[in-house]
Each structure stands twice: as C-alpha cells, then as structure tokens.
Amino acid sequence: MPRAPAEVAYRAEEVVSQLLQRLAGSLRFPAAHNRARCMELILAILRGLPGDVELHEDSAKAAVNHLQEHLNDKDAKVRELAAVALCKLVATQEAVPVAEHAPFKAIMGLLQCEANKEVRAAIVSRLPLDSSSLPLLLERGCGDDTALVGQQLYLRLRQDLALVAEEGQATGRVAASPQQRRELLWSGLQEGRPEVRKAAQELLGKWFVEDAAGDLARLVAALGPQESPELCDLVLDQLAQLQHWQPQAWLQAAADSPDPGASPRALAAAAPAAAAAGLAAVAPARAYVWLYACRQVDQLVRSSGQAAATRMAASAAQAEASAGAQAEAVLDAFLPSAADMAQLCLRATQAGPAHRYVAAVLLRLSALPSFNWVDAASRAVALEVLQQLIAAPALIVTEDTPGRTGPNVGRLPPLGCGGGGQWEDAVLTLAVAVLGGAAAGGALVESCLPLVLSLAEQLGVSAQTADTAPEGAVLQVLGYLRLLMARAGAGVPPSASAPLPPGIQATDAGGDTAAGVDQAAGADDGEAGDEDASEPRISLEQAVRRLAGHAAGHASPAVRAAAVRCNVALALREGGLERALPAALSVVAPLLPLPGCRDSRGSSGAASAGLNREEAELQQLPRRAAVQGLVDLSLLWGEPATTGVLRRAVAAAAGTAQVAAVTERMAAVGMMAVDGAEGGAAAEEGAEPAEAPPPSAVGVVQLLLQLTEGLVRKLQGYDGYAEAAGPAADALLGCARLVTQWGSQRRLAAYSRQRPARLAAFSAMAPELAELLLARLELARVSPALEQQPQLLAAVRAALGSVRELASQPNASGAAYRQLMAAAYLPAARCAMALPPLPGAAATAKCAAPDLMEAMARDLAAASAAAAEAAVAQLVDEAEDAEDEDEEDEAVASQPEGGARQQQQRSQRQERLAEVAAAAAQLGKMVLEELALVAIERDEAAAAGSEADASQGGGASKRSGSSRVRRSPLDTHGDKAAQAYTEQLCKAPALLLPEPVLAAAGGDDLAALGFLGRRAVRFAESELRPDKVVTEAALKKLRDLVEDVENTRQERAGSTALTEEDAAPLLEALLARLAVLPNQDEVAAEVEADEAWDLTTAGSGDQAQQPAGSSRRSGGGSGSRAAKSASTATGRSTRGTRSKTATAAAGSRARRNDLRPVREDDGDEDEDDGEGDANAASADDSSSDDGDAVEADVVRKRGKATEAAKGSKARGTAAAKPTSSQTSAASVAAAAAPAGERRSSRAAAAKATEKMQVLKDKDKVAAKLVRLSQGEAR
C-alpha cells in the first residue's frame, strides 16, 4: 500500500540529511581530488533539493562545520567548492538576515584574504543577497583589481539586484539604494577593463528594459538628475551607444504627443489652465532628458552641416545636408519660438520653488543655437524677462514650502536660500545667449550689472548696510555679482562700466557713495564726453567695492567667504594686476595663518571646543575661500608676483594693527578718544600688538606648506594627524595645481622675456619651491590622513600622474620636471620615515619610506625611459631628413668628410640622450653617496661610543678628541625606520637606472656612478651587512647595478674610469647637497596644532582625542604654528651643530631651511641673536617697496660647493649657503682613498695624520673623510 505524501517527504528529508552528514564527515581524505569529489557530491545534493525540503538541524550544523573547516584547505578547488556549498546552505535559511549567519561571516573572511581569483569569483557570483549582505559584497567586490571578479560581481547583481523597490510586488530581488546605484554605474561604465564594462552595460540594459520598462524619465529619476547630472549624462550616452534609444526619434515622438507637458512647444502653446497642469506634470527627470536630447540633436545639426561643407562627393554632401535638415526640423517641432520660450521660462519661475529646476532647464534650453535672439522683438521680450528674473526679489529669495515631496517636485534654491548657484548660472546663461554669446562680455556687464544693483537696493544691501544686511540677501547679491564677472569672461577689465540705476542715484544723492561713483567712473573710462557727464556709470571695480567691501566684516562666515570670492574674481581679470590684485590680497591676508594679520571675526576660535563639527566647517568658509583664491591668483599672475603683493599687504596690515594698538593705549590713559569700548578693554588687558612676520616667512608656497603640514606630521597633544578637510584639503589641492601648471608657467615666462612688447613681464615659480610642493604631494600620497578621504587621495595621485606624464616629454619642460622629481626624492624619503606603513604592507614594514622611495624611483625611471624613447624617435626622423637633404645635394654627398660628420651626429645624439637621463643619473649619484655616508656615520657612531666608554675608564685615546658631529644623524643601530630607509637606498639605484636609462646616460655620469657605486658597495659590505642593517638580496641588487654600469661604461667609446683625485669635486658637490637633508629628530618632531582651524581639534568629544593645550608631549617641538612656518613647513628645520670651536659652529649654522629665502649678498646675517632675521626683513621690506620683493624671495642656491670650498675665511658670514668643505681638492682626494688601498710606509701614515690635524680644525665634513682615511691607514 503506498505511503502518504507527508510520510514520503519526511523520509526523503531524513535520507538526504543523513547522506549529507556522512559526505561531510568524509572530507578528511588526504588526497585533494578525493576531497574535491566529496565536495562536488555535496553540492549536487544541495542543488537538487526542492524549495520546500528542509534539512534536519543537526545534519545542517554538522555539514556547515565540516565545510567551514575546508575554507582553509590548501587546494584552491576544494576551497571554491566549500564556499559555494556554504552559500547554498545559507540561501536555504531565509528566516535570518544573511549577514548574521556564521557561514556567511566565514565566507567573507575567505574573500578578504583569498589569493586565487577563481575562488574569489566563485564566491562573488554565488553569495546570497539581501539588504544586509549587499553592502558587504559591494565593499569587497568593487575594490577587487581582477577583471574576472569584477565581471562576476556585475553579472551577479544583474541577476538579483533591482533598480528600485516596487511596492506590493515580491520579486525576490534586492533593491539598490540611490547611492549604490550611482556608485555601481559610475565605476562600471567607466571601467577600463572591457569585461567589467560589458557586464556593467548589461546591468544597465536590464534596469532600463525590465525595471524601468523602457522609460528614460523613470530611469533618470532613479539616478537623480539634480544630485548626479554627470552620471545621467554617462548613462544616456551608454544607452544611445547600445541602441536602446535614439535622441532624435525620442524628440520626434514627444513633439507628436498630444500631452501638453510632452514638449516645451506644447507648454508654450497651451491655454493658461492647461499649461499650468502640463507644467505641474513635468518631472525633473523628463526636463533633464529634454535638455540632453536637444543638445545631442543640435550637435548633430552642426556636425552634419560641417561634414556637408567638407565632403568632396556630391552624394555624400547631400546625404549629410539631408540628415542635418531632418534633425533641425525635429528641433523646430519640439521647441517654441524665442519669444515664447522666454515667456515660458518666466511662467515656470512664477509657478513656485517646486518648479524652479524645470525653469532652470528651460533657461539652459534657451541658449541653444536653434533660437534666434537676433530678432529685436524676441530680444526685447528676453531682456524684460531677465529683468524680472534677476531684479525681482519675490521670484528669487522665496522660502520653499516644507513638506511637499514627489517625483514632479524639482527644487533648486537660489543662493539666498542656501543654494549652490545653479539657478543664477542658468539665468545668466539666457543673458549670454540673448546679448550675443560668450564674446559679448562688455554687453553682458552693460545690461546685467544695473539689474544686480537694483536687486541689491531692493534687498537693502548697500555700502552702508553690507555688513549688517540679512545673510540671504547679501549672499544673493554677491553671488550674482561673482557669476556675472565669470560669465563676462576674463577679457573684460575691472574698469568695464554700466549705467547706474536711477533709483540708486536718487537714494544716494548728495552722499559720498554717489559722488565717488560719478568721479571714479569718469576716471576709469578715460573717455570724457557729453554722455558720461549726463549719465552716471559704475564700473565692476566700484560695484565690488560697494557691495563686497564692507561685507568682509559681516557676522556670517558664508557672507565673508562670498566677499572674498568677489574680490578674487575681480583680480582674475585682464588689467587686474595694478589695483584689483592688491585689493584682493588685502582681503585675503587677514584670513591666512600669519602672525600680526588676523581676521577680526572668528579667527581665534573657529573650531574651539564650544563648536560642533558642522559649525566648525561653517567657520572655515572664509579661510577656504582665501586659500582657493590665493592659488587662483598665483596661477594667473605667477607665484612670485602674488607673493610680492601678499608681503606688502601683510606689512600694511601689521602697520595698521600697530597704529590701532597705540591709539588704544593712548585712549586708555585719556590722551585721546576712541570710538567703541572694545579698544579700551583690549588696552586694559595689556595686549601687545602682533609684529609683522619677516617677509621671508610670507609666501604662497610657505602658506600652502604650513596649512598641509598637519597632514604629514603628527599634531602635538594628539594621537594622529590633522584631518584632510577644510583649508588643509584646499591647500593640498593648491599644491597639486601649482605643480602641474609649473611647466606652462615657465614657458609663459620665457615667452614674455622673448617678446616683452607683446606680453607683460611674467615670472614662474622657482624650481626650489616647486620641489617642496612636489615633496609634500608625495608625502601626502602615503599619509594616513588621506586614507579616509578617497577623493582627495585620487586627486593627489592624478596630479602625480600628470607630473610623470609631463616629465616624459623629450624637451626642456620635461627635463625640468625630471629634475624636480629627482630633487624631491631624498627630502620626501627622509620625512616619510616618520609615517606609518601603508595599509596592506608587509608585516615587517616599519614606515612608509620604502614604499614611497620605490614609487618615486619607478616614476622617475619610467619618465626618463619614455623621454629617451621619444628622443630616439625624434633623432631618427631628423637623421632621415638630413639624409634626404644630402641626397638632393650631390656636392655635399660627394665630400670625403662624411665619416666625420656621422661621428659628429652620433656625438650629438649621445649628448641629447644624456640630457634625458641626467636627472635619474644625478639622483643615482646622490643615493649612492647617501648610502656610503650612512655607513660611515654608523661606524663612527659605534667608534664614538667605545671611545666614550674608554674615556670614562681613564683610558681616553687620541681619536676621542677628533670626534665630530655627524652630517645628518640616522640611528641605524636601533631605529627600524632608519634601517628600512637604508635598506631601500640599496634597492633604489637599480630602480632608477633600468637598461633604457642606463644606455642613454652620458659617459661622465657612468664614470661617476661606477666610482660611487663601488664606494657604496664597499662601505655597505663592511659596515651595514655584518649588522644586518641591509639584506643580502638588497646588496646583490646594488652589486648587479654597479656591474651593469661598468659594462655600459666600458662599451662606451671615450669613457674612462673616475680616479680618486678627479672624484673630489664630485664628492664635495654631493656632500653639500646631502647636508641639507632633514635629520631624524626633525622628521620625528611634531607640529603644533592650529586649534582655530584644524577639524581634528573641533569640539565634539568623539572627534578630538584631548584638548590641544591640555597635555603636550615634551619632545613635540616648540613655538607657534605661524612662527614655525619658515622652519617646519618642509621638514627641514634649522639645525644647529654641537661643535667645540666657534669656527665650526659658524660653519654649521650654514645649514638652514630651504624655505627661508635669503639673498646671496646677505652676508651679515647672525642667527644667534636674531639680528640677521631683522636685517633680512628690513631689506625685504625695502625691496618690496621698490617692486623687487619677488626677486628677493629666492631660495638658497645649491650645487655651488666648489666656490664655497675656496672661501674658508668667509664661512662665518656665508650662513645662507650650505658649505661642505673649505679644503683643496687634493686634500679631499687624499682623504677619500678607497678601503682596498693600503698605506704600508710610515711616511704615508704620517702625512695622512698631518692632513687630518689640519682639516679637523677647518671643516667637519672634510674631517669625516679624513677620519676614514686614518682608519684605513692603520
């Protein structure tokens, strides 16, 4: 008799559970193929289970335990099958969220550490999805660098990820959040790997066809056109490429639709009631598709016309013209006339804040070339509409109705209501189109500036009330003024004027403001006439002074920031160097971290403990605007010119502050009256006026480095670094912009020198300053402060990639960038010793220096190799051209000097290639010498310690008296970071000098590299390798490089080995350049936190580890942040030496910070009592008055060691130059004898001892080498 169905089902579940448990228990086979076979059987059983069958709980737990054990199996196939089987077991238990299952956590742990890409791809493609597991899968899968894993991730999402959650519809698919949709499509559709990009396109296609049912507006609404317009453009581009839609056909269908809201023409032609209903039905997504489709079809019209004009064949030209005519007909059917479009824009604006986004789209549509604004009637209607849009406060500063939401609500608040300027930009887009396009900047100012002034008058914003008017009103007026200047173009000078509105003239009649406007307008125009006398005018400069001048003292930080941006925008115009630039920097200077130059509002506690993070970020707006404006001005007018004007502005501000302080003191003792009570209170407290900083401490580069210093050095009193946000992030981006534009500024400076009559004098940033900025960017790339700021980190990496590309050019600009990269290598590497290892580094890593050094070396080597390849291609082309010319000139070809000329050509070719490889070769020399000196210093440090012990025991030797202070001490005995730095020094030359670069190097460079390489290998083998400071593998790389260098040199004709005597000047120059590297104490020193602006010190307890002033560590440095701007901004602070003689002490003072600009003729500087700084400051002030402040800001020149070595008597006065030795070349050569050469005679030993005694009293750098020779002689 057959059994009941329930009994059969129960019996089947029991059998399957027992079989599964037995198979899971048999997974301990020693052979991998047996374990894999058991896994396959288990997986087959799980796949064959019906949906209504449930395994026994005990059997399921046992199977899960056995499978989890084999997630760590040594066989990749077994791990893959175990992970897939666990995914099936997790999927069968639907009552609990997936992420809470223990097997899921184990699978995610395997996914994090799995090295096999097939295993990772199998996990990603089968992992169960729900709302809890989806974020974890996206976090791990999107960051995988394997194409297979990325492809499987998008295929998995295509199967189970829905576009939006459908109400009342249970599809079994997980709905993606808006942020997840945007990130997936943005990264996937721009993926460089074709497999991943194709899978992302399939995901997009399914979302469009199935989830959005082919409705473009529905898809765009899910992506958010207001939040991510760039993504919407990308998605619509991809859909058009995939043939899912055609913009022209879509517009034609919309034009043929009877719906009054289907097209702008239908809206304009409908009756008022129908038009209002149609406008209410237009969603922001549909309006966005209107704009995108019309732009695409308009581009088709123009491209077809150009193609028809250039086609040679008549049939092809006719076809192109026909296609263009059809596209133009579609636009005519979709869009209304120009006058109707202007009226439609006004009606949409009047419909209320909920329709302002649609109105902005209509305004941008009005700028299409399809509209004829040349017609006088259409232009008159448009100007009237513009007057209402700009000068009507009721249409602009309107509070939005809260609580109203829906798909058809498109809010776009104006600046006065917290907007970002999109609405105002759309209005000015219509104005530009109506008034003649981008070339009509003067007409735009003529027509729109009076409207802005009228708006200001109606909102109560004037010169007298700009600092007390409502915040929204001032923001609206200043925003319109700034955007008007931007839309007018940089070619419109600050003196461009417009008629002064009659209402404003009547209001201010008889006052100082009106009189100033009339007189200044006539002076600025420079053209006296009857019209100027009858019609008062106001220039852009006067409007900015009128509206933004007093706004800098407003209580709102947003208003103060807007005032700064207006002043900067005025200075960025042609002709703004004379007056607008000083005026802008006088507004910017109080917002920068300079002593004696403070903002009167909010600068001394903007991020204090009483403010939360949001309030602190709001208080940072003025300084952020100042930093951004300072960078913009430096890019336009040049860093030297901007620095010179900034110094004058700071000096003027300090003088004003001192006068105010004296006035307050006089008022306190009753000698004179002062308005207000604050002055007396300040005087009673005894506040001293802040002195002006020395001009050498003021500069664009110095300020940027000071603001970003907390990103690469720890803060005093805090556990970490400053947060990479606010002014610090802006300053870091400014460093990137200045470095990437440095080459173009150098070309512009050269062009201005060659053609002074056609272009005003322009100066580019000094190479030494560009080197500091590049070193800061390299350090920021490996700093922990940027780990939580992926966008900022991506921008820094993009800037460094641009530098590498610029350095790959075989021209003078590429050579300058390669020299820049080489010069920044060792300073950045030294400073990176204080940074922790990068995430994902080896467990033995002690600091970020090795990774940074490897990356920088590879970048320079790649740039040098690319430049060499391009130079070879150019030389081949030039040789072929020369051969063609010789063949045409038979007389030249028949001359017997052909062989000599070929030899000359080969010589010129080698010279050009040597120039390409010069930077890498020079850095290779410095690295090799640095390695040798580290080994020497390690030996001398050990010898000094043993001699000290002997001295304490009464047995002091003669060598203890000759002990010296090391050049740049590195504790390679106990400091792991110093050991890692030294280890990488052995590996760096091989990375810097690959075969293409080595083949391009010149003969002199090869000889020097060979000599220094042998020297470095000898010292590393004798001093570093026995104590295991460097590994044998690293030392082998160094030996192999030296062998390659020698082989290349021997193959090169005319290249001889470098002798010890010839190497003396080379060693002098290298020692002079290495002497300025920051030592270990300077690298580890902490920077004082700027409590007024660093977000790390902001008020909430979960953000600040402890109050900045409550617990300072004793070894963390001293002095205020502003006072240390000249010494700590580069990590190369001033280093005093511990010499026993006064002469050696004076020579040691020569090693100063690269950021302290000192003129070469400033020889009376004294660092001990501070008089030198005062002299330098006065000299710089006087030179600034003469207009030469830019030239005075020259960083100390390096590489002049030969001249410095000859002037031993001038060592006490030449404190601005890094002298390395005052001895003759012969003495240095004798001191630098190789270790293999033995002095066997007493005369040689006595001679070496005598030379050592003479040199010991003259220079510690030469004494270092003499100490070495003495030890070798013994």
From TrEMBL:
- Segments carrying the region annotation (Disordered) are 492-535, 876-909, 945-974, 1098-1252
Q: Known SUPFAM superfamilies for this protein?
A: ARM repeat
Start-end of Low complexity biased regions: 492-523, 945-963, 1120-1148, 1220-1235
Biased segments, Polar residues type: 1098-1107
Q: Where is the composition biased (Basic and acidic residues)?
A: 1151-1160, 1193-1203
Q: Biological process GO terms, please?
A: mitotic chromosome condensation
Q: Could you name the Gene Ontology cellular component terms for this entry?
A: condensed chromosome; condensin complex
Q: Which InterPro entries does the entry link to?
A: ARM-like, ARM-type_fold, CND3
Acidic residues compositional bias: what residue ranges? 524-533, 877-891, 1161-1172, 1182-1191
Q: What is this protein called?
A: Nuclear condensin complex subunit 3 C-terminal domain-containing protein
